[in-house]
Design a protein that fits this description.
Length: 308
């Protein structure tokens, strides 16, 4: 199995369109220690010819044009993209589906809850029902990922609940914080090819016993790297929300990601969904050195990992 990071940044990307912060300007100016990153998505394949996307980011068109593996190779209209697995209904996870219009067959795999979000937003009807299949996946049930012609890809996906919240645009208009729940709104995905296993968890509000038990000893985990400090956006004057309020655990702190993974024995761990305020994006920051010393790879666009 191969995994290819299409985008490693959180919603808004790096640089973010309206950010005049120092780090975003370093990325904009081409500073090699602050390489730009597109919004989070991972592509996986068993055979190198058929690919499944984990989330469809708003940057998907650019990601396809940057990765030859995802570009058409046969006939006048075709795609190596056989399907899209969704881990939530946030804008940065689903908006790229709109890029995949043009009557091209593929399958969207998601929980009932996330499919309901698509169904209640009629703009997604550009993915015509007679062409694009929508498969509802029950959490905890491994499902075969199939090519557009129905053939077994050699991969399965299992979605499992992780602590999270409803998408930002579905929050109450009064601004009250939605509860952190473990249900079908935010899920992790585990992809298996019969020999190897990888986890993709771009959004997670907390580590708990059930998640720790799932991840213990895992071969490869791509995990929520949104913020370094829970209050970093407030401190930088970039917004009023903490990571906790946004449904993302942070890297630092006693309940943070570094501490939570310290004893899990995960062999390879890669940060994805990294917000533009997170200093780990900067190759010359002390925070980058710290997370690397703790055994993490700071994910970047184009990083390919082969599992055998
Ligand atoms: C998140 O990960 O918290 C969301 O993607 C935020 C957003 O939609 O802007
Ligand atoms: Mn997001």
């Amino acid at each position: 199995m191969k995994a290819l990071i299409l985008g490693a940044a959180a919603g808004g990307a790096f640089p973010q369109w309206n950010s005049n912060a120092a780090a975003c300007n370093r990325a904009r100016s081409g500073d090699p220690a602050a390489p730009a990153r597109t919004q989070a998505s991972l592509a996986v394949s068993a055979d190198g010819a058929h690919w499944f996307l984990l989330n469809a980011s708003p940057d998907l068109r650019q990601q396809i044009e940057s990765n030859a593996a995802l570009q058409p190779r046969h006939g006048l209209r075709s795609t190596p993209i056989s399907g899209v697995v969704l881990t939530g209904g946030d804008v940065d996870a689903i908006a790229g589906l709109l890029t995949l219009r043009e009557r091209q067959p593929f399958t969207v795999y998601a929980t009932r809850k996330v499919h309901d979000v698509l169904a209640s937003n009629s703009i997604f009807n550009v993915l015509a029902a007679d062409v694009v299949k929508r498969d509802v996946i029950a959490v905890g049930q491994p499902v075969t990922l199939r090519h557009a012609d129905g053939a077994d890809s050699g991969l399965t996906v299992e979605l499992f609940p992780v602590p999270g919240k409803v998408p930002l645009y579905l929050e109450q208009a009064d601004g009250s914080a939605p509860p952190i729940v473990q249900g079908e709104d935010t899920v992790g995905a585990v992809i298996r090819d019969g020999r190897s296993t990888l986890f993709y968890i771009p959004g997670c509000a907390a580590m708990n016993e059930s998640l720790a038990a799932r991840l213990r000893g895992a071969e490869l985990v791509f995990f929520d790297g949104t913020l370094y400090r829970d209050d970093e956006m407030l401190r930088a004057g970039l917004g009023s929300k903490t990571g906790a309020r946004m449904g993302h655990m942070s890297l630092s702190g006693p309940q943070g990601t570094l501490a939570s993974f310290a004893d899990l024995g995960v062999k390879r761990r890669v940060l994805v969904h990294i917000n533009n305020s997170n200093p780990v994006l900067l190759a010359d920051s002390p925070e980058r050195a710290e997370v690397e010393a703790a055994g993490w790879i700071v994910g970047y666009d184009g990083l390919e990992i082969a599992l055998d």
